[in-house]
Design goal:
Layout lengths: L6 E7 L8 E6 L5 E6 L15 E4 L7 E6 L3 E2 L2 E2 L3 E6 L16 E4 L7 E6 L8 E6 L6 E7 L7 E7 L5 E6 L6 E8 L8 E6 L5 E5 L2 H11 L30
Antiparallel strand pairs: 1-2, 2-3, 4-5, 5-8, 6-7, 9-10, 10-11, 12-13, 13-14, 15-16, 16-17
């Protein structure tokens, strides 16, 4: 009587990245094989991609690059041909250190009255990108350099000059006006004239005559009125009836 088959499972095809594995039965005694079934214990492995990206196009400041990653699994000495495309993000412009003035160019210097223009050039080779920004105008820095004093009749001024650009401007000082405070002459009034007082400006030779007011004129007369002489009382004048030899004359005796 012959031996019976003693079956055990064996792998026909191992699982791959995308396919299930398969198995069959084989006899220990005679080596006969049978069956070709999906091995439910050997599901597809999935791709095992390399970490490194094979770059096909380098990214630039403004455009994405691209490349791929390849599956690194080997089957019968051959590598899995699967590749996965990878987008490599654009790298953006390299404008240098914003706080390092050595990376900054100046197209136009700022002045007291006009803004200037500065720029940063991208440092990446082959990129001509440039960004501009405003350098604020400095404004004038004025210092007083001259003073012309005002007079009674003329306006004076202070002159200011910008220490940066040399621009000047004048700031007016109001004229002083006369100060008629020095009395130099008084003309007494009479019954028919008003009289006046003459004043001189304390700052210049200019003079001014001011007529006396009615009140001043009255006060003057009260103070300086001449005393009237008192006339003696008169007596009645009577003729003297004396006879003269050669001449008859009426003589009035006071």
């Amino acid at each position: 009587m012959g031996l019976k088959h003693d079956w055990y499972p064996f792998t026909i095809f191992p699982a791959t990245c995308t396919f299930w594995g398969s198995f069959g039965m084989k006899c220990y005694n005679c080596g006969v094989r049978k069956g070709d079934e999906i091995d439910l214990d050997a599901p597809p492995l999935g791709h095992d991609l390399e970490y490194e990206v094979v770059v096909e196009k380098e990214p630039t400041c403004t455009e994405n690059g691209y490349g791929y990653r390849q599956c690194k699994r080997l089957y019968n000495g051959s590598r899995c041909p699967y590749t996965e495309e990878v987008t490599i993000a654009k790298i953006g412009h390299d404008l240098g250190d914003l706080f390092d003035l050595r990376d900054t160019g100046v197209e136009k210097q700022a002045t007291c009255t006009e803004d200037g223009v500065a720029y940063r050039q991208c440092k990446r080779e082959g990129c001509d990108y440039k960004v501009n920004w405003i350098i604020p105008k400095t404004g004038h820095n004025y210092e007083k350099v001259k003073t012309v004093e005002p007079t009674c009749t003329k306006v004076g001024y202070n002159q200011y000059k910008c220490s940066i650009c040399g621009h000047t401007y004048n700031k007016s000082i109001s004229k002083l006006g006369h100060d008629f405070s020095e009395l130099i002459e008084t003309k007494a009034p009479t019954r028919n004239t008003t009289g006046y007082k003459k004043y001189k400006c304390s700052r210049c030779p200019e003079t001014k005559i001011i007529g006396l007011t009615a009140e001043e004129k009255l006060d003057y007369f009260k103070t300086n009125e001449d005393k009237q002489e008192q006339l003696p009382k008169t007596t009645k004048k009577e003729p003297l009836n004396s006879k003269a030899k050669d001449n008859k004359t009426n003589i009035f005796i006071n």
